[in-house]
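_Backbone structure tokens_
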Amino acid sequence: MEKFTADVIKIIKGIPSGKVMTYGQIANRAGSPRGARQVSRILHSMSRKYKLPWHRVINAQGEISIRDEEMAQVQRLSLESEGVEFLDNTYKIDLDEYLHH
């Protein structure tokens, strides 16, 4: 496993309940500031195997970026169960409140 991949897995596992990180933030912290898409690929291919809290990763606008409506709803419900509140009837949260640093 490449160092970047291992670092991404470790970072995602470290996101506490009720907090989120962005794809770009994770990539930057793992040493590849332009690696947000790679973070997405790692989440897609390794979440189940490494039991990653995939639902705690969102885009830089504070939104769920999953296009599949059913999976977006799963992500929203998972975050809400941890106390994350969404803005109105959107898939967007207040990053100032929920972003993990």
About this structure: The chain is about 50% helix and 5% strand. The two ends are 25 Å apart (CA to CA). The longest strand covers residues 21-22.
